[in-house]
């Protein structure tokens, strides 16, 4: 991958899992070549690979490595560890579940090959889902619109094209997106570092803003639509996404502009009746107290670092999936899309 090539957040090359180290972007394009599933688990935990679908695909390739490291027993050990590497994105346990199933069905002497085929299939399906979400979402955009997005729901977060950012890219290619406001997304700056990096590759006109500037811009009529990704969507449409998403949904509602969520069906968790049951990752407060290597909070002062929040379904205008756009009431529309 790189400026010239197609974006691939996760790849398989010469028997290794290849990841672009997202903690080093945008300053450096460093590729990690991993041989052991434990390295994949650590890369997910440390967010060298991040974004709901991308951690699912990385974990799937991690399970392939486990098959080479030690056969079926090692595959199960890897599945148990990988699926709990991060708690909020349901795509992780969904992907590991598919790999478990593939391992169960595989003949012992072709375990590795069968798992590799399944991981490749998942990556291909994600690419197709992203492109379909991009097409369907772009239809919804008003002409010549100014879009605001949060975090990074681009190819870096999925596999190749992205969900919310895929909609924006497709809208830009069709001449529907005039400008993108990119929330910087504290504390880890996925918007400033990653979304801006991806949009620059596309030549999209944009500006990065601090998260707390969104209300000001929306109140002045400078945003026509807000679109974000999702990490887990409950049966009633309540949606977990990067911390700060809920605030944007409230603002959009207050000012009467649409708030869309874009996500593949693998992000649905229809077993959860509502968003209050979604596990919210509580990360190291050090990510808040230290910014760019510099301590910004006095020594000894506590900080909290909730990585996600839940946007209630009533604030969501529509949920764009690869099978169609769900509209309220979501309990019905989401389950009908999931049935296919
Ligand atoms: O903590 P991160 O960077 O993994 O959080 C990512 C997000 O919140 C994305 O918006 C979400 O995973 C959707 S990715 C298509």
Structure, explained:
- This protein is an alpha/beta fold and 340 residues long.
- It has ten helices and 16 strands.
- The chain has helices at residues 37-45, 52-83, 90-105, 111-140, 164-173, 190-202, 214-219, 245-254, 286-289, 330-339; strands spanning 10-13, 16-20, 31-34, 145-149, 177-183, 206-209, 225-228, 232-234, 239-242, 259-262, 268-269, 290-291, 294-295, 308-311, 318-321, 324-326.
- The chain has a seven-stranded mixed β-sheet.
- Helix 1 packs across helix 2 (52-83), helix 2 crosses helix 3 and helix 3 runs antiparallel to helix 4.
- The radius of gyration is 19 Å and the shape is globular.
- The two termini are 33 Å apart.
- 5-S-methyl-1-O-phosphono-5-thio-D-ribulose (MRU) binds next to helix 2 and strand 9.
* Percent of residues in β-strands: 15-25%
Kindly, what is the distance between the CA atoms of the first and last residues, rounded to a whole number of angstroms?
33 Å
**What's the average pLDDT?**
97
Total beta strands: 16
Q: CATH top level of the largest domain? A: Alpha Beta
Taken together, the total number of domains comes to 2
What's the shape? Answer: globular
Order of helices and strands: EEEHHHHEHEHEHEEEHEEHEEEEEH
CATH architecture of the largest domain: 3-Layer(aba) Sandwich
Give the biggest beta sheet.
7 strands, mixed
Considering the protein shown, what is the CATH homologous superfamily of the largest domain?
Translation initiation factor eif-2b, domain 2
Structural class per helix/strand content? alpha/beta
Number of helices: 10
Radius of gyration: 19 Å
Percent in helix: 40-55%
CATH topology of the largest domain: the name is Rossmann fold
Low-pLDDT windows of residues = none
């Amino acid at each position: 991958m790189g400026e010239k090539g197609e974006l691939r957040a996760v790849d398989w090359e010469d028997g290794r899992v290849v990841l672009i180290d997202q903690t080093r972007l945008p300053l450096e394009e460093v590729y990690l070549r991993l041989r052991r599933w434990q390295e994949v688990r650590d890369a997910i935990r440390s967010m060298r690979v991040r974004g709901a679908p991308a951690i699912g695909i990385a974990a799937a390739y991690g399970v392939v490595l486990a098959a080479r490291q030690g056969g079926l027993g090692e595959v199960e050990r890897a599945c148990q560890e990988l699926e709990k590497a991060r708690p909020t994105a349901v795509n992780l346990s969904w992907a590991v579940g598919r790999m478990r199933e593939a391992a169960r069905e595989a003949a012992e002497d072709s375990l590795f090959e069968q798992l590799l085929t399944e991981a490749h299939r998942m990556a291909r399906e994600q690419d197709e889902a992203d492109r379909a979400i991009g097409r369907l979402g772009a239809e919804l955009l008003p002409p010549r619109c100014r879009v605001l997005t949060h975090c990074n729901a681009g190819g870096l977060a999925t596999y190749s094209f992205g969900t919310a950012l895929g909609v924006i890219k497709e809208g830009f290619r069709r001449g529907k997106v005039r400008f993108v406001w990119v929330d910087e997304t504290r504390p880890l700056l996925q918007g400033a570092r990653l979304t801006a990096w991806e949009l620059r590759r596309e030549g999209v006109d944009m500006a990065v803003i601090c998260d707390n500037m969104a209300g000001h811009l929306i109140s002045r009529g400078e945003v026509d639509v807000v679109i974000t990704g999702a990490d887990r969507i409950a049966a009633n449409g309540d949606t977990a996404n990067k911390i700060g998403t809920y605030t944007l949904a409230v603002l959009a509602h207050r000012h009467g502009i649409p708030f869309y969520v874009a996500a593949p069906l693998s992000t649905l968790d229809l077993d959860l009746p509502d968003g209050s049951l979604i596990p919210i990752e509580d990360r190291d407060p050090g990510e808040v107290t230290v910014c760019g290597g510099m301590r910004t909070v006095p020594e000894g002062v506590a900080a909290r670092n909730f990585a996600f929040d839940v946007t209630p379904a009533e604030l969501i205008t529509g949920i764009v999936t690869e099978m169609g756009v769900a509209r309220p009431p979501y309990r019905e529309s989401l389950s009908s899309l999931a049935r296919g």
